[in-house]
């Protein structure tokens, strides 16, 4: 088990390094290969009226004139030991892990990422619990009541959930439950958990449910399909033949096998969400990592985009690592392999 | 995809906000009433003014901001030397003293401008405002490395003699810029290297909002600018929220232009634009800070509902949407080929692409619009009764250009601007009728001027004959509006906004206008410049933009300030 964990951890670290290289290359190497000069890159960080001299000064100051390899090394070095930036009136020290410096907003990237992270964590965690519980439960019930009205109705709702875009269901839910019924008057704003837990939860109910509606639909269909397949297996028949109660057959035998692929998808989905639920955060005006990513892309703020990509990759890798470990709990055969 | 999105949004708007309409449909206003008068007038104090912002500030630092809405909002926490009169209608175009006692006194050659500061104006901490603090902020704006976003007017006109930043300044008090003198705490004198009769407009810029050197934290100053206005920062988290409270050291007796009615002002940043429209209509937000008007879904809903429409204003702006014709790209080096495009353009279809008359704007026939003093309504290239284009005239010009069967060219537009893309498509269709076949090329907005359409070498090399363009005035006056798009001397190697107007006669007229003190005579000169550029057919104007603004009944003292290019005036708002 320890070997298994060490192997997976090393692979995760290697993957993160590769992601950082590829991301860095996309933003800083590809433009050069396509003909843009370092002055062109620098021109993004000066005002719209800046002349060639001002652009050149920025180019030197930001080190954009240096070889890309050197720039990458400085980026990595900043993560490990921090970095110093000299901007106008004062020198700025960016403490490790320094994921670069936003030259447009003139702030280090890492504190901004940490500032946005609780919003995304709040959104993802709440929605994940809802969609997992409701999605799997609905899937199991549908499978057990195959062909019934309950099955057809729940799968119809699931199909709607998968089909409707979140910017539609989100705005619709705000219009109905906030503006018309006024059940959640604070929806569309974020209040930190530590500030007021009750308001935090009340304001997040709509984004949680909206996001869970879309994701849960997928899990319901996935669980249903898995359960139907598993319930036809020989060992289920054997379990019944042994005289085990139906509840035990379903929960201990059928559901356990069905959960393995569900867990795989859940790991990837949760990891992706933690990197920023772009549409949900945008629709509900939540200042999380997804909104941060979109704003950074719109502002051409490459260091920030790089930071979000890295943190997103980290969570995906982490979630997959956790899933791999949970596999070993659910399915003992994994440990042998 | 976009069409599906629009359809969904429209469906959503149709079903959303019904319950809230009880509050949103209240009020005693009439459609467009906010353009000519103060709607929901009130002097009651208290409450929280809830403002939504779909984007983020470029900066809240007075030295580093260039957004029009930011220049409007900044007056709540900063006082410049002058400002536009805070009244509805044409009177709003008039400059009045703010921090200064009077408008500037100038030397005979318009190169020296003197302002005397009012007595008794204080910062939020109770310390008095000094002329040196005004000078210090102007010095800060010269440091484009630290504050890249603000305009460059002071750097362009002041005789800086190489002075680049107060942060490199070794003189005591960091006031080493010789081009500005402060003979005493209440007097500031600007020395220009070239004459400029409209300097009072420069004095209106946020750059003249005083910054106490002892409180300057450089790039972090934006987190808490020291207030001289009726409100001060309580807390500000970029990207999230700005909270402001009353500035108890603001003295209304020194400031007849602002009110201090709400107890608090709360700006939520990063609000979904469609949701913000819904909040305004439902009454759960009082103002959209960006002032760009309602989105398509909400605009459709408001226009079709009389109870909502009475709370809306279709406000004229000082923004023109036009097609710049690249005179360096053949065959547009021939004026007749340019004129053929002028006649063939289907302006009505392009207006529709921008949202029609109420939320898009009026068909434009020349550069200046009614908001700009001196505006003369001319139409040198009539494009038919319905503005669909005059095919016969266009063909005549093509004959004169030796291209009777038309020619091929390229239209450039910005990828992230769907209205602009749709207008380019309408332009393409109109030109096709006379044999001009145009291919549309899309470019990223962020690099549009620096790398592509504003880069003369790229334009010529890649044959961008027709460039989709949108231009808003820095302030509604000839210089603040036209100079950057028609003066050939501002053309550089990249980052241009003058996309092809190269006429020495125009440059001479600009020089004449900048030394003309009489505002009527100056306006007439800018009208001449407008006519000259149109005569040379460098620009095809097609839309004087209007924005369909919504004012919830909860917002008091609401009116459009023409001096602020058609935004609601934030300096007098209340909520009680």
Automatic annotation (TrEMBL), chain A:
It is found in: Cell membrane. The keyword Repeat does not apply. It is a multi-pass membrane protein. GO terms for molecular function: dipeptide transmembrane transporter activity. It holds the Pfam family BPD_transp_1_N. Its main location: membrane. The chain crosses the membrane at residues 9-30, 119-144, 156-177, 197-220, 257-279, 305-330. Keywords: Cell membrane, Membrane, Transmembrane, Transmembrane helix, Transport. Gene3D superfamilies: MetI-like. Residues 117-327 form the ABC transmembrane type-1 domain. GO terms for cellular component: plasma membrane. Belongs to the binding-protein-dependent transport system permease family. PANTHER family: DIPEPTIDE TRANSPORT SYSTEM PERMEASE PROTEIN DPPB-RELATED (PTHR43163:SF6). This is ABC transporter permease.
From TrEMBL, chain B:
Residues 94-488 form the Solute-binding protein family domain. GO terms for cellular component: ATP-binding cassette (ABC) transporter complex; periplasmic space. GO terms for molecular function: peptide transmembrane transporter activity. Residues 1-16 form the signal peptide. Keywords: Signal. SUPFAM superfamilies: Periplasmic binding protein-like II (SSF53850). It comes from the Bacteria. One of its GO terms (biological process) is peptide transport. Gene3D superfamilies: Dipeptide-binding Protein, Domain 3, Periplasmic binding protein-like II. InterPro entries: Peptide/Ni-bd, SBP_5, SBP_5_dom. PANTHER family: ABC TRANSPORTER SUBSTRATE-BINDING PROTEIN, PERIPLASMIC BINDING COMPONENT OF ABC TRANSPORTER. This is Peptide ABC transporter substrate-binding protein.
């Amino acid at each position: 088990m320890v070997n298994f964990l060490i192997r997976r951890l090393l692979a995760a670290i290697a993957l993160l390094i590769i992601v950082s290289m590829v991301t860095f290359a996309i933003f800083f190497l590809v433009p050069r290969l396509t003909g843009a000069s370092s002055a062109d890159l620098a021109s993004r960080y000066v005002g719209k009226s800046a002349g060639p001299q001002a652009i050149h000064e920025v180019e030197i100051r930001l080190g954009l004139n240096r070889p890309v390899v050197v720039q990458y090394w400085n980026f990595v070095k900043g993560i490990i030991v921090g970095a110093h930036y000299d901007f106008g009136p004062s020198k700025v020290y960016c403490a490790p892990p320094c994921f670069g410096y936003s030259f447009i907003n003139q702030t280090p990237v890492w504190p901004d990422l940490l500032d946005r992270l609780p919003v995304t964590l709040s959104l993802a965690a709440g929605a994940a619990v809802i969609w997992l519980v409701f999605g799997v439960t609905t899937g199991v019930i549908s499978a057990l009541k195959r062909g019934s009205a309950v099955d057809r109705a729940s799968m119809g709702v699931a199909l709607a959930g998968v089909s409707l875009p979140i910017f539609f269901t989100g705005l619709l839910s705000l219009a109905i439950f906030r503006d018309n019924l006024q059940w959640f008057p604070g929806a569309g704003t974020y209040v930190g958990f530590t500030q007021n837990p009750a308001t935090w939860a009340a304001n997040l109910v709509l984004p949680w449910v909206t996001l869970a509606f879309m994701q849960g639909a997928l899990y319901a269909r996935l669980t249903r399909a898995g359960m139907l397949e598993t319930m036809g297996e020989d060992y289920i028949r054997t379990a019944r033949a042994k005289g085990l109660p139906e509840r035990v057959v379903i929960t201990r035998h059928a559901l356990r096998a069905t959960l393995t692929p569900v867990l795989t998808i859940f790991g990837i989905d949760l990891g992706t969400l933690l990197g920023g639920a772009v549409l949900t955060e945008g629709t509900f005006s939540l200042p999380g990592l997804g909104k941060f990513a979109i704003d950074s892309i719109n502002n051409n703020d490459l260091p920030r985009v790089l930071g979000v990509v890295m943190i997103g990759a980290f969570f995906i890798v982490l979630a997959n690592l956790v899933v791999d470990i949970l596999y070993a709990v659910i399915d003992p055969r994994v440990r042998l392999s | 995809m976009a069409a599906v999105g629009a359809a969904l949004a429209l469906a959503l708007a149709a079903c959303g906000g019904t319950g809230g309409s009880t509050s949103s449909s209240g009020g005693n206003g009439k459609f467009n009433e906010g353009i000519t008068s103060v709607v929901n007038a009130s002097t009651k104090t208290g409450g929280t003014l809830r403002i939504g912002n779909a984007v983020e500030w470029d900066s809240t630092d007075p030295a580093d901001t260039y957004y029009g809405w930011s220049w409007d909002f900044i007056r709540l926490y900063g006082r410049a030397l002058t400002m536009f009169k805070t009244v509805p209608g044409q009177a709003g175009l008039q400059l009045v003293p703010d921090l200064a006692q009077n408008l500037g006194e100038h030397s005979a050659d318009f190169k020296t401008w003197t302002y005397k500061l009012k007595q008794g104006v204080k910062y939020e901490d109770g310390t008095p405002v000094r002329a040196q603090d005004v000078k210090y902020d102007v010095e800060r704006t010269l440091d484009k490395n630290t504050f890249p976003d603000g305009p460059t007017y002071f750097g362009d006109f002041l005789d800086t003699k190489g002075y680049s930043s107060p942060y490199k300044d070794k003189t005591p008090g960091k006031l080493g810029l010789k081009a500005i003198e402060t003979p005493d705490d209440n007097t500031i004198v600007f020395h220009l290297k070239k004459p400029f009769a409209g300097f009072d407009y420069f004095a209106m810029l946020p750059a003249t909002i005083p910054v106490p050197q002892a409180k300057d934290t450089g790039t972090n100053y934006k987190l808490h600018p020291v207030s001289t206005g009726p409100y001060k920062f309580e807390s500000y988290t970029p990207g999230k929220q700005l909270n402001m409270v009353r500035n108890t050291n603001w003295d209304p007796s020194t400031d007849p232009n602002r009110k201090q009615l709400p107890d608090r002002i709360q700006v939520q940043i990063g609000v979904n634009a469609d949701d913000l429209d819904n909040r305004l209509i439902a009454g759960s937000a009082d103002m959209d800070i960006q002032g760009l008007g309602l989105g398509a879904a909400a605009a459709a809903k408001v226009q079709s509902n009389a109870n909502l429409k009475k709370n809306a204003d279709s406000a004229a702006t000082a923004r023109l949407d036009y097609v710049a014709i690249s005179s360096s790209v053949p065959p547009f080096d021939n004026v007749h080929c340019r004129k053929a495009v002028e006649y063939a353009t289907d302006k009505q279809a392009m207006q529709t692409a921008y949202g029609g008359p109420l939320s898009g704007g009026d068909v434009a026939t020349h550069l200046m619009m009614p908001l700009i003093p001196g505006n003369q309504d001319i139409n040198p290239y009539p494009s038919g009764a319905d503005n669909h284009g005059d095919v016969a005239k266009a063909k005549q010009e093509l004959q004169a250009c030796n291209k009777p069967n038309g020619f091929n060219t390229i239209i450039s537009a910005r990828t992230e601007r769907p209205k602009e893309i749709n207008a380019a498509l309408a332009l393409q269709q109109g030109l096709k009728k006379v044999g001009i076949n145009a291919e549309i090329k899309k470019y990223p907005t962020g690099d549009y001027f620096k790398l592509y359409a504003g880069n003369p070498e790229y334009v010529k090399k890649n044959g961008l004959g027709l460039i989709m363009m949108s231009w808003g005035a820095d302030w509604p006056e000839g210089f603040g509006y036209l100079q950057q798009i028609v003066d050939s001397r501002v053309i550089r190697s990249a980052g241009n906004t003058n996309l092809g107007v190269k006429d020495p006669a125009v440059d001479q007229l600009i020089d004449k206008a900048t030394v003309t003190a009489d505002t009527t005579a100056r306006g007439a000169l800018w009208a001449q410049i407008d006519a000259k550029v149109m005569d040379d057919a460098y620009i095809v104007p097609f839309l004087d933009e209007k924005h369909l603004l919504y004012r919830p009944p909860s917002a008091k003292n609401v009116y459009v300030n023409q001096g602020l290019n058609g935004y609601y005036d934030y300096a007098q708002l209340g909520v009680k």
